UniProtKB/TrEMBL annotation:
This is Pyridoxamine 5'-phosphate oxidase-like FMN-binding protein. NCBIfam families: PPOX_FMN_DR2398. Residues 32-152 form the Pyridoxamine 5'-phosphate oxidase N-terminal domain. Pfam families: PNPOx_N (PF01243). Transmembrane segments: none annotated. Gene3D superfamilies: Electron Transport, Fmn-binding Protein, Chain A.
Length: 206
């Protein structure tokens, strides 16, 4: 299998967009009213980051719509809630602040893409402001926006992501307990593992 190894080889396959194309002009250097509105309605964001060796990670963050707060035209705050304490994203941004964000709104095929630099804060006032169920955020990821733009609908249309009739039968897929049983040889049955996970979800969602 041959692989493309240069910009010239890549652009021999894909044409270079003209500077006047919407695909180029749509990139903003700040968050305008539409970006702010989208973030305010989004309950879900994917965060891409990497460490100094280039090991990449994408982490999902989900909460009530508007959980990510626009502090100003170039700053977004994303709260961190209880999790597994791997801290993949937070560990990465402490070393390498570059991040990419993809905000999603259920049922909407277009997404909002943001890139910038992130820092982690445990500022008490900000953590308290982003509290849910009386529980402050553990920490907050503060992203300084470099670029923001709307991404077109093609990927969601092709995948039929929001079309229930295209979804697989959940019963045909293994549970996380079954997966952990096979991959990690955890103690107990898959059903016992699933019950422990369900209980943990109920007790530590926020």
């Amino acid at each position: 299998m041959d692989f493309i190894g240069s910009h010239e080889e890549l652009r021999a396959v894909y044409k270079t967009p003209d500077a006047s194309d919407v695909a180029v002009r749509k990139e903003l250097g700040r968050l305008d009213g539409h970006c702010r509105s989208f973030i305010a309605r989004s309950p879900f964001v994917l965060i891409g980051s990497s460490d100094l060796e280039g090991n990449a990670d994408v982490t999902p963050k989900g909460d009530r719509p508007g959980f990510a707060e626009v502090l100003d035209d170039r700053t977004i705050a994303i709260p961190d809630r209880p999790g597994n304490n791997r801290l993949d994203t937070l560990e990465n941004v402490v070393l390498n602040p570059a991040v990419g964000l993809l905000f999603v709104i259920p049922g909407m095929n277009e997404t909002l893409r943001v890139s910038g630099d992130a820092r982690v804060t445990v500022d008490a006032e900000l953590r308290e402001r982003m509290a849910v169920e009386g529980k402050p955020a553990i920490s907050v990821l503060v992203v300084s926006v470099k670029t923001a733009y709307m991404h077109c609908a093609k990927a969601f249309m092709r995948s039929k992501l929001w079309k229930p009739e295209a979804w697989p039968d959940r019963a045909s897929l293994p549970t996380l307990g079954q997966i952990f049983r096979d991959q990690l040889a955890v103690d107990g049955t898959a059903e016992q593992t699933d019950r422990r996970l369900d209980q943990a979800y109920k007790e530590t969602l926020w």
